[in-house]
Amino acid sequence: MPLIVVPTSQVLWVRVAALVFTCVAFSVAAHGASLPSGGMADWCIFCWAFSFACTLLVLLVELFGLQARAPVSWTNFPITIACYAALLCFSASVIFPLFFLKNQHVSGETRDYRIASTVFSCLATVAYLGEVSLTKARPGEVAGYMATAPGLLKVCQTFVACVIFILVSEPVSYNQHAALKWCMAVYCICFILSMAVVVLCVGECTGCLPIPFSKFLSAYGLLAVIMYLTATIIWPVFQFDKRYHGGSYYSSNLIAVAVLTALNLLLYVADLAYTARLVFVSA
What we know:
8 helices, flat
């Protein structure tokens, strides 16, 4: 029988708080919020349920002391989950009130349920951000790659890319010009490589690369910055310039993609700067 170990630490309590907050958020939304099926409602429920399930898994593994038996790197897995959960809950905290509270004519009880889900979603976001803050690597501390600033930036890069994919696919907004297809290629290639880094670190497979992991990170970081720089310039030119865009109306999705592309460029620049410091300064 495995021995149950109950540590008393700040990390434990913020995980328990996140577990409770996400559970309440999706339970209240599913029980009395009278949400429509599909679309953003399902996305918000998924954000809370996924975060709850992953946090419960992390708690059970640590309470039963099964870290050594886990098929993943336990120095990388919990903080990766916490960072993704923080981003998911944050997105739900923004999307849920915009779609299901603002300008919605619903009964008082239904509105109360929706307000409660929004409040607990915000609390869950704060709890997950607290976990990330408590478990990230400190200066001079030996930790897993995902606990460092470049590792956390990789999580943010993949999340922003996923949001971009959603925005450009409904409706499809990259088929009008070859230049826009290049932008889509940039999003896909950089997302795949960033996600590959996350998977390699969490799965402890960085040694499988034919080149040193640090050199791979540096080369990929430089390539990603150059590619995103081109996309940051090309996307607004071919979407908003009247020479390439027939109408004068621009959807909010197109504007959001332009903003998120610039945001991801900044994330990749910061990632490259941190990686260069880790590789060259540390060396």
